[in-house]
């Protein structure tokens, strides 16, 4: 995570996400998947092909791509279908867009009720016998049962969570890095899924994004760094309030 | 003269070789790599530090950040929308330098009208207009937080101080000042060996000093897991940074 300053002098914290060897693996049509839209399977980060069975490697061999560590699906409209085997780059996103980031949270193991659900526990002294971090009562008398989903101790973390509505401040096309506002679930160097935001306030935020995606062999040569309009770039002189 | 005392033809004595002290080389040899360039120990990708360093060097090309250590007296002018003339000047002694990369900070302390003031500035904040080093002097410690519990005369510096003129560009002088403290209680127990402070004149009784040594952990010095040898990393980063800045 890094600090970033706007032209008005405000500081924001920014997470760096690297797009590492992403390829489109397969196209699944609407009828085949049985959903509302067609799907595209996308794989990230190369991994060794030796520890998987042949059936698992079939998808990668079809697309002509080395084995990927993680495979996710994206629901895609019919006009945004991409041929399997095309690489995906960070320039698919542009500064000023809003993005949702999904990842597996840091696993905390088996945790008690105070850390997992934020219960208040009991006082440390004034006669409490062996009860300082316990949940207390778990149901009422009339119910005569414990409801499903009752908050109790258990394994915490290591589940998928999404941070919604994060602004993209800057894109580095040379190293394929996306600078995303705020924090992102997961530990450092974990695999993360980045999608266009589903929030209704950001529905019309994308002004002419590269559609269906940014193709590297095209004619447009992008500069190494793409900045948002409000970012203070370090080549400019210091900020003054005139 | 040609004839020696023996009468034989005198051997040619070459003149003594002059000893050349190359001042330029000595000046170049002294390198200072700002501590925020050194990446902390961790599992982060080195690519992230490389990109951060590029940004830091970019900023240094536009705005000069002078070499300074803890104990120097600095004057910092920041842009402030709510001040007269939109600029704010603060003079103070640097107590602490923290943070790595773009978020590196330093704290300046001064006592203004009997009120101690500490301001934490970010080195790479674009609102900073100028950093001037008024007086160069290193102190015995890396962290001068104990000035909060010292007598206020040790933290007062004149706001309109003129920069002290320095001739040599070699060796920052070390001020071996021993600071006198206010009566206890202090904000931290500075006499304990954990803080390893050499710049205080402790006027505590012997018994208290001995009791403080109970918290001594002499084995930490030999702990190999805590070693972080930065010499090679520093070399590489120094080369990179100096090459970029010369361009």
TrEMBL record, chain A:
Record-given protein name: Large ribosomal subunit protein uL3m
InterPro entries: Ribosomal_uL3, Ribosomal_uL3_bac/org-type, Ribosomal_uL3_CS, Transl_B-barrel_sf
NCBIfam families tied to this protein: L3_bact
Gene Ontology CC terms: mitochondrial large ribosomal subunit
Keywords from the named record: Mitochondrion, Ribonucleoprotein, Ribosomal protein, Transit peptide
GO biological process: translation
Top-level taxon: Eukaryota
SUPFAM superfamilies found in the cross-reference section: Translation proteins
Cellular location(s): Mitochondrion
PROSITE patterns: RIBOSOMAL_L3
Family of this protein: Belongs to the universal ribosomal protein uL3 family.
Alphabetized GO MF terms: structural constituent of ribosome
From TrEMBL, chain B:
Gene Ontology terms for molecular function: structural constituent of ribosome
Subcellular localization: Mitochondrion
Keywords, sorted A to Z: Mitochondrion, Ribonucleoprotein, Ribosomal protein, Transit peptide
Domain of life: Eukaryota
GO cellular component: mitochondrial large ribosomal subunit
Family stated for the protein in its record: Belongs to the bacterial ribosomal protein bL19 family.
SUPFAM superfamilies for the chain: Translation proteins SH3-like domain (SSF50104)
Plastid recorded as keyword: no
Family annotation (InterPro entries): Ribosomal_bL19, Ribosomal_bL19_sf, Translation_prot_SH3-like_sf
Identification of the protein by name: Large ribosomal subunit protein bL19m
Principal place of residence: mitochondrion
A Gene Ontology biological process term: translation
Region of interest: Disordered: 1-25
Segments crossing the lipid bilayer: none
């Amino acid at each position: 995570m890094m600090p970033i300053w706007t032209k008005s002098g405000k500081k924001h914290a920014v997470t760096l996400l690297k797009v590492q060897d992403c390829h489109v693996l397969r196209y699944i049509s609407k009828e085949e998947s049985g959903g509302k839209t067609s799907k595209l399977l996308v794989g990230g980060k190369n991994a060794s092909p030796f520890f998987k069975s042949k059936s698992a490697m079939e998808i990668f061999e079809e697309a002509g791509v080395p084995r990927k560590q993680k495979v996710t699906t994206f629901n895609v409209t019919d006009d945004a279908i991409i041929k399997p085997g095309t690489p995906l780059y960070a320039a698919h996103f542009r500064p000023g867009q809003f993005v949702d980031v999904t990842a597996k949270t840091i696993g905390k193991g088996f945790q008690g009720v105070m850390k997992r659900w934020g219960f208040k526990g009991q006082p440390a002294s004034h006669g409490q016998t062996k009860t300082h971090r316990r949940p207390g009562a778990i149901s009422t008398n009339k119910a005569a049962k414990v409801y499903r989903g009752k908050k109790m101790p258990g394994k915490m973390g290591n589940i998928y969570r999404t941070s919604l509505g994060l602004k993209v401040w800057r894109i580095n096309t040379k190293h394929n890095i996306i600078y995303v506002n705020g924090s992102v679930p997961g530990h450092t160097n974990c695999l993360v899924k980045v999608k266009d935001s589903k929030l209704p306030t950001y529905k019309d935020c994308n002004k002419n994004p590269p559609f269906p995606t940014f193709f590297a062999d095209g004619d447009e040569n992008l500069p190494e760094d793409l900045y948002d309009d409000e970012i203070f770039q370090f080549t400019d002189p210091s900020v003054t309030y005139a | 003269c040609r004839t020696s005392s023996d009468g034989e033809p005198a051997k040619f004595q070459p003149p003594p070789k002059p000893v050349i002290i190359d001042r330029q080389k000595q000046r170049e040899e002294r390198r200072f790599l700002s501590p925020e360039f050194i990446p902390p120990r961790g599992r982060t990708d080195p690519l992230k530090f490389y990109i951060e360093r590029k940004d830091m060097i970019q900023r240094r090309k536009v705005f000069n950040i002078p070499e300074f250590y803890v104990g120097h007296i600095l004057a910092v002018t920041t842009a402030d929308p709510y001040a007269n003339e939109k600029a704010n000047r603060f003079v103070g002694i640097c107590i602490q330098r923290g943070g790595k990369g773009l978020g590196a900070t330093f704290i300046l302390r001064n006592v203004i009208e009997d009120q101690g003031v500490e301001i934490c500035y970010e080195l790479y904040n674009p609102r900073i207009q100028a950093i001037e080093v008024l007086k160069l002097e290193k102190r015995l410690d890396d962290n001068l937080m104990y000035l909060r519990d010292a007598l206020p005369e040790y933290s007062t510096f004149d706001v309109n101080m003129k920069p002290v003129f320095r001739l040599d560009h070699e060796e920052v002088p070390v001020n071996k000042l021993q600071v006198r403290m206010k009566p206890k209680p202090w904000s931290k127990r500075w006499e304990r060996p954990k803080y390893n402070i050499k710049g205080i004149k402790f006027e505590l009784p012997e018994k208290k000093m001995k009791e403080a040594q109970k918290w001594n952990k002499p084995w930490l010095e030999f702990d190999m897991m805590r070693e972080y040898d930065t010499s090679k990393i520093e070399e590489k980063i120094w080369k990179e940074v100096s090459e970029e800045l010369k361009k």
